[in-house]
Structure formats: C-alpha cells, structure tokens
Amino acid sequence: MSMTKSKLRVYDDTRALFHLPDGVIYLDGNSLGALPLGVAERVNRVITTEWGNELIRAWNSAGWYAQPRHVGDRIARLIGAEAGSVMVGDTLSLKVYQALAAALDMNASRKVVLSDTGNFPTDLYMAEGLIATLGRGHQLRLVAPEEIEAALSEEIAVLYITEVDYRTGRRHDMAKLTAKAHALGIVTVWDLAHSAGALPVDLAGSGADFAAGCTYKYINAGPGAPAFLYVAPRHADTARAALSGWMGHAKPFAFELAYVAAGGIERMRVGTPPVLAMAALEASLDIWDRVDIAEVRARSLALGDLLIAEVERRCPSLKLVTPRAHERRGSQVSFAFDGGYAAMQALIARGVIGDFRAPDIMRFGITPLYIGESEVMRAAEIIEEVIAGEVWRRPEYQVVNAVT
Amino acid sequence: MSMTKSKLRVYDDTRALFHLPDGVIYLDGNSLGALPLGVAERVNRVITTEWGNELIRAWNSAGWYAQPRHVGDRIARLIGAEAGSVMVGDTLSLKVYQALAAALDMNASRKVVLSDTGNFPTDLYMAEGLIATLGRGHQLRLVAPEEIEAALSEEIAVLYITEVDYRTGRRHDMAKLTAKAHALGIVTVWDLAHSAGALPVDLAGSGADFAAGCTYKYINAGPGAPAFLYVAPRHADTARAALSGWMGHAKPFAFELAYVAAGGIERMRVGTPPVLAMAALEASLDIWDRVDIAEVRARSLALGDLLIAEVERRCPSLKLVTPRAHERRGSQVSFAFDGGYAAMQALIARGVIGDFRAPDIMRFGITPLYIGESEVMRAAEIIEEVIAGEVWRRPEYQVVNAVT
User: Fold this and answer.
1) pLDDT tens column, A273-286
2) Would residue A350 count as lying in a domain?
3) What residues form DSSP beta bridges with A322?
4) Does the beta-carbon distance from B272 to A60 stay under 8 Å?
5) Which residue, of A288, A306, A336, is where some domain finishes?
6) DSSP characters over B89-102
7) Which UniProt keywords apply (chains A, B) (predicted)?
C-alpha cells in the first residue's frame, strides 16, 4: 500500500507517479493506461517474496484468496458501488456475459435484449453466444444510441449498454435510463469500460442492477489486467451464476460434487484468480485511493474543451463526433476524418499516440493523471501539422497494419 | 528466450533454475509450481520496456496480440498436440466450459454428459451451469472412476473427465477410452490439469477431441497463470464458440456488429489476453523447451516408487490410494489417513509442504525438475516423525484454516 493516504492533486502530484517515454504525448490511455511507477516493484515482490518463498502457503499468508473481493472494494469507491458488491477477475467479455445471463434469468418471461450500435462489439458478440446457448428465442435488438430511451418498453428483458461510447465518447444518462427501465420492468446491465477511472459513476445512486468494467484503460493496471463485475446487493444472493466455477462455490475447499452458489458477490468468482496481474492492479489503485474522481472529471472536461477548440481552429476538415455538452461526454475526444487511419499513423510517428476506430474515427483519450494543458497544446500543434500540412497523405501512412 | 536451446538434464541441470526457500521440501508443485528464476526478469522487462515504453504499440511491436497462439504452440509440444491447435487464456474452468459447450453442440441428439466422482469439482460445477443455461434436458452422470469405461454407451453425448485424479493420482487410459468413446459416437473432453508437464500426453495420437489444462501446476507459470484449450484440428473450423468474445472474431479490429467466428483455434480466444501473466508463462516454458518429458516421467515414477516404499515402511497407518502400477499413476502420491489434515499442518510446520484434500487425503506432488532423491528421503523421515511419532496429535495442528 502507499506510504501515506494524503490526497494527491491531479496531474500536479500524479504526473510524476507514471512512466511516460520521452517524446511521446500519450492520448491512448482510454485503450491502455500508462505505467504507474509502483507496478514493477509490487509485481516483483509478489513474484519473489510471495510466490517464491511462501509458495502455496501464500493463498492464506499473502491474502491471495481474498484479494479479488478486497480489490473489488477499492474499485467500488471509484464507481459509486456499495462495499462488498464488486468482484475482480477474468475479462470484461466474461463479466458482461455473467451479468447478462443473470439478468435474463431474472426476467425470464421476456425475450428481448436491448443494446445500441455504439456498444463495444464484444458485448454484442457475447450476447449472441449466450442467446444461442440459451436457445429460448431471445433476440438482441440494436438501435442507434440516441434511440435507446424511446426503445425501452415492456417487451424488453434487459437493457445492455455501455455508458460511454468507445468511438464517439457519447455518454448515456445512467440514472435516467435506469429509472425508466425499472418503471417498465427492465433489468439493466452497464458496461463501464470507458467510465471507471474516467468520470464519477454512481451505481448505487442510479439503482443499476449489474455493471462490469475493465482496469487496463483509465485505471492503468496494465495489458490484459482483470475485469470487475458489480451486482446490486439486492440481487447478490439470488442472481444465477451461469459460469459456476469452484471459487464461487459456497464451500470451495470442501470439494463437493454438486454446485452450491456462495452467498453474495462471491458467487461471481469463477476460477483461480490472476495473482500477478492483481498485484499490478493493486499498485495502480494505490494512486486512485488518493485522488478525487471529481477533480479528475473537472480536469478531463477542461482538457477536452481545450483539445476540441484547438483542433477545430487548426483543422476544419476534422469533424467532431463527441458531444460538446459536458454531461453527455466521457473522457475522450473523437473526430471523424476520411483519412483517419493514415493520419493516426502519421501522428503516432510524431509521438502523438491516439488510436483509430473503423470506419473513420480518430480517438484521443484524456487522462488527467498524466496529461495536462501543455501536452494537449503540443498535440494540437502536431495534429495541425499532420492534417493541415497534409502529411497524412504520404504513402508510408496508407499501409494498414493487422492490429491497432 | 533462453540463451541456448541445448538440452537440460532433469534435476541435475534444472534444479538450479528454480528458487526454493531454505528449509523447505516442496511437494506441492501439483498445486502451485515453484518459481523459475527467469520469471522476475521477464515480467519486469514486459512491464518496463513493453508496457512502459511501447504502450499501446506493444500489441504489435512486442507481439502481444499473437502471443496466446504462439505460447499455445509451445505447450502443444508437451501434450502431443498439433501445431496451431492450442490457445492460451482465461482459466481452466472457462476452458472446460468452452470445450463442453462445443462438444455438446456436436452431439446435439444426445443428452448425457458422463464424468466421474474423481473429476475436479470445478469441471462438474461448470457443467452444471452450462446444462442449466442450455435448458435442453441434459444430464450430468457421475460414476466412480473405475466404472467409466463400462458406463460408455450410445446414450452418452460427451465423455468429460480429468486424465489424472486430483486426489488419488489415478490415471485414466486416454487412448483406450477415447477409442471406445469414438466407436460409440461419443465426443471426448479431457482435463489435463495434472497431466501437462507431469507426464507425456499424446492428444493427437489418442484422437482426443477437446482438452484443457492449467499452467500454474507442473508447468510452473505462477499463481493464477492462464489456462489452455486444445481443439482437434478436424473440429477447429466448425466447433461452436459459446464464449464468443471479440478476440475470437474473424476480424476483431473491423468492429462489426455481428459475430463471425475466426477460423481454427483463434475462435476460442475470448477477451484481452493477460499479458503480464503470459510473460511468466513464457519464462517457465523456457525451461520446458529444453527438457525431455519422457525423462521427467521416468524420474517421477522412480521418485514416486521411492516415496511409497519409504512411507509404507515407516508409517503403516498411512494407506496408499495412488495406484502402484506405473501406467495407472500420474505424478503425485497420495495417502489416506484419518488425521490427514492435522498431519499435513504438522508437516508444513516442519518444511515438508504437501497438501490435504477432503475428506482424508494427504497429497505429495512429485516434480522432478526441482525434487530429487535426497528431498524425497528427507521428506519420508519427517513424515515418519509426524505420523509414527504422533506429532500430528498436538492441539495446534487440529485448527482448520479457511483455505489450504
């Protein structure tokens, strides 16, 4: 844990807690967060001291067994969740699957899962797979994000959406949609991939039923860091655990032949937790424990406004697709541009790392823990050079790589 | 990678490649393998150089995206699998779930999943969960391990068993059972938790359909290390991916709204791979690439024979539950003893680390990469002290901990 729990000022104190390579302006923390300096030592300690010396005993002596729940409680703070309502593990794909399976079970007489075309594809794919496994005639209905509210009806079993759109940065109104959904008997599943660590979330206050998120984006826990699942306490003892692994059993070490779900959020554990990845997550949370998410949000909006103003002034051919209204925006700024893929390659070659999302979206993530005004201003200058200076048209930037 | 690919002699060369704490005889590598010395540096490099400096670019530049398949090919060598047939990721619970879901889909007219009471409980629990989700009247039928062969019939859809029993160390005959299963139209799913890195497995030669295993036991990849899934090449392009995440999509970075399964084993990927854990796994495989699994097996059997002979001679009250016949034994030796829990606590207090499995099984894992004759002889002396000397009766060893 951190030596002191005194508060850290966002950027002024936190920038020095991250490693960022020279010559890079990193605007892709919404895809993979930057490296907190405390991670390497923490992971090394778990490898050498806990695994190396304690060996199997570390499940007790180092607290590995209870860690997924304890870490869940640290994440709960960031997303307005009740203590004991968040479990860490697996990947976001699996956590939305668990949530949707439980939600559909709670509303078995209805057959429609409502989502939107701005949801991240893996959520839709996992739902397709679940629906096929269920084989009970469920339908995944997709509407445009702005049509979600009007599409809520008593036909819908589950509202299954991502709060902040991964391409546009458009933000849904969680409290309003959840209230309307509940009035119509709809269970809600929220994906917080672009919310957790990006902006204040109020799961308990909004009455959300289920939520899931990842920790490798704004939380900065590293590539492939574990995901988390939230189950509202009123559902936790009854929600069906579709992925009923031994760690979610009421008595995992009794090795009984029949499954009996543990009480509460424990039932949403599946297999053996990823201890090394959990160490990196703990080190990243050492920073989050000491910052005010409201301050992060205020800085994010100001930096986003600055980036929008500077890019629009310098590059009129870039069309803003992120809502201008603060309450409808996440923590990224996205522009549509026909040459977006090539332009992003040119930017990355110049040290401005954002990313591209098909068909034509250039994304810039705003992560105030390690990005400030000077970085945003410098990025805007380089964007101007690439776009207005037509650097993006050079042949070397037209080659499409396999993965971005 | 290792500096040289020259062969290593088992124990004589490999013992020095592991960290083992002073005063410990570690006979629990069948639960959590010991720490290979190369892990800490490898993981540190991935954290500082790849994540820290390359950031999001490392998905391409450091090969993170392709790693689960490349590492799968390294594991394939150990289990007699074809190149391109093994995918790494998630946990064993999830991998047996994927395998069983695909297997049931291939044999949809039959409704019985056959397993045995020696299967590891999470396999049974995951099957229960899948059967409930399917809701198509499937039945999980459990028989005693020795009754499996006789229980095969044309009523069975899937034979779903663990090759080596986690409690007794009893080994099923994979080739024989698979052949008989196939003759009856049964699809096979093998759990290799106590096989991979423990003994030669011949998936291709035995004609197995699906298999899954973990890497934190005999492979020594660390606590919560990722699992793997094998799909026979003849099924890989048609097996249904029930956990249909974006990484298993034919074009993951096209971000299409509808799921289209990738060809081959790639469809069994789910979400973002655990990159830090994968680094530890790669370091552990640097040793496995250079040893001969047949030599590991020969040493394991000899050490097991020695432990059995010494314990039976010194402690007649311990009843061997592991088969004596080499071909029917995995790489552990287990004894039933009414005071087993207390005795194991007393042994651990004296540096002999094995483990206990309810109701009365004392397990000792044989891991010849870092356990040799002198360790086995010393362990036998301490077992004698604890059992024959009645040390296990002391009150301090009767207290049951939450997790063992």
Assistant:
1) 999 999 999 999 99
2) yes
3) none
4) no
5) A288
6) ES-HHHHHHHHHHH
7) Hydrolase, Pyridine nucleotide biosynthesis, Pyridoxal phosphate
